Automatic annotation (TrEMBL), chains A, B:
InterPro entries according to UniProt: cNMP-bd_dom, cNMP-bd_dom_sf, RmlC-like_jellyroll
Native source organism of the sequence: Flavobacterium circumlabens
CDD domains referenced in this protein's UniProt entry, alphabetically: CAP_ED (cd00038)
Domain Cyclic nucleotide-binding: 13-116
Pfam families found in the cross-reference section: cNMP_binding
The protein's name: CRP-like cAMP-binding protein
Length: 192, 192
DNA sequence: TTCATTACGTGATGTAGATCACATTCGTAA
DNA sequence: TTACGAATGTGATCTACATCACGTAATGAA
């Protein structure tokens, strides 16, 4: 699907916006393409944009001192990604974002988002609800981390991201679940 | 501090709002008081309101099938609490909210929030940023869960909620950290 | 096609934290 | 003031998962 049509459909699920308003809204987005493995945000970068995925898959992840990687989020088409802590607070990136596959995205700068939010009430409405949903999802995942064992979280992951199974390397799945790749391997080989 | 002044100060940190607009905004909030131990939202309830804490401390928590409790959030003065998944999706509560101490709060119904957000652009702006901050905090906590051991998370907690230490029962601290009370006890008795 | 890198599987062992069990102290209501 | 339930401390086990170590299979660039 065309980038513009995909974003429009996405926005209309939340906000009432006229065709002219959407054209204006859309004019602030910039199409970009990336290759598999390419980095979009690296730790230490100044973060000025957030990204709406049209095609492909991104991952947002953190790497600790022992070079262990934790994946906060996979971003599939119609999902958003950035280092939001850095973007909102104007601090340097601590989260990385890169491409799990070739990807087509739309980028939106922080200042343009604030500009269209102040100019268009419905844009502000849209972004409020987008984050509301993100907040609920983050809280749900946190709870799952506290309450569920690895096997259960693995099964939840397959429901949330069915397209990931047999698509991305297993060690990325492990990094999302917060377990070692060895544990994940033993888990899905023994449990069926 | 007066409830109205506290909320006003809180809103003005994020949004530009005139005195008249704030008066209108505030008119949708309803003051309520609760006793220590009293329940505000119970699992299975219809959730229609969110709560802004004026005084005291609330906890938002989940109880699993084995009757083990996990605390998602403590809410201190100027913090908000509810079962947002239930509130936003109009589903039954899966999260409980109750009072760690006697508490004074302001309640705001879902429909009144949406009403003032549509009537007042600055209200929509305020709630967008409130949730933005909540989202970033939730993500940060998730990361801490994946990356840090219990002792580190315990020390983070003391920074985030210094008032909690020596104020709330230790088993609640344990329920926030996601460890057993025994483990927490050993931790802070051995580590100094 | 070859070679190197990355992904994946699996055994052996170590460890943080859960669970169970019980003793002690504290807080609050009568 | 007493008394009873809640909160806390601490030892003895048990277990899920990490880590290390190594071998094999798949992938991708020259």
């Amino acid at each position: 699907m065309q980038a513009k049509a995909l974003l429009k459909e996405h926005v209309l699920k939340i906000a009432s916006i006229t065709d002219e308003e959407f054209d204006y809204f859309f004019s602030h987005f910039k199409p970009e393409t990336f290759k598999k493995g390419q980095s979009i945000i690296s730790e230490g970068d100044v973060v000025d944009k957030e990204y709406f995925v049209i095609d492909g898959c991104l991952k947002a992840f953190f790497v600790n001192d022992e070079v262990k990687m934790y994946i906060l989020q996979f971003a599939m088409p119609t999902w958003w990604a950035s280092d939001y802590a850095a973007l909102y607070n104007k601090t340097k990136a601590t989260i990385n974002v890169d491409c799990v596959s070739d990807a087509a995205i739309l980028s939106l700068s922080n200042s343009d988002r604030e500009k269209i939010c102040s100019e268009l009430h419905q844009a502000e409405h849209f972004f409020r609800w987008r984050t509301n949903k993100g907040y609920v999802a983050a809280q749900k995942r946190l709870l799952s981390f506290m309450n569920n064992d690895t096997k259960t979280r693995y099964e939840e992951l397959l429901v949330l991201y069915p397209a990931l199974y047999n698509t991305v390397p297993k060690h990325l799945i492990a990094a999302y679940l917060g377990v070692s790749r060895e544990t994940l391997s033993r888990l899905y080989n023994s449990s069926k």
